[in-house]
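Comment on both lines for my students:
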Amino acid sequence: MKTQIPEQLKADLPPTTFGKILAATPVVMTVVATLLAGLATREMTIAQYDRSLAAQQQSKAGDQWNFFQAKKLRSAMQRNTLDLLQATAEVGALDSTAVTKLDASFGDSVFRDSLAAVQSGHLPAAPAPQFDADIERAIAAFANQVPDDEFSDAVQKVNPAALEAAVRASIEQTHAFDGAMKPFNAAIDKVDAALGKTGEGLTQVSQPLQRSFTATRLRYTAARYDMEARLNQTIATLYEIQVRKGNISAERHHRRSQKFFFGMLAAQAAVIIATFAMAARKRNLLWSIAAAAGITAVAFAVYIYFFM
């Protein structure tokens, strides 16, 4: 955008301070209009970026919800199988001494401790990350399905950096839980393999021991899936908060872009009026209108930039 003042108009201007200001007004307003156009474009670009990022986070949230549903379904299947087993046969408590006799390696202390934890239903500790109060309120608002306005108000108070740190901490918690589960899963797999063997030198396993171990495994696996589902639910909820926060930011920048565009139009109007003022006899009136339009555009842009 470039404004050129005809030489004839320049020559017609009075050689006074007012004439100099009048000649400079279209140029200054052109600069202001260009600046406002750039701000409007910038705000629209940020809005589009926020929308794109929110879409990516929504996809991640969907993945976590899928994991959550799959884990809950697997847990229900384990419990249904356990109920069916208990309804069709007599299932007693698992005899850990009989289990350790299945294989010489089962006498290892790590295996015994893991088997005891599986038998008691004790899951490994997975320290939950500590979220700040604003994130906790946003999580509670999402869980309680409050109206959109209340949820948006809670989300707006959340610090973006703290929210990103909460997501990373929750993901690390799932990895820590998976790592802590490895010895327990290994113990279950070893016993399951030993119970399935029938070969020379291996004592024939009684059916009651098989049933009791199967029941113990089903119960423990169901509890593990429930824990994993809760971890996925927490991550999904945090992603949902990020999605809402991104959409709120995108809407804000979109509104700012519109307002900057209106300010640009006002500045362009000031350019046109100031140019007419040079050629008109009543320059004071037209220049005053142009100055008012320009000042309004600048003040409007400042208000948008700092307060919207």
Residues 7-307 form one domain.
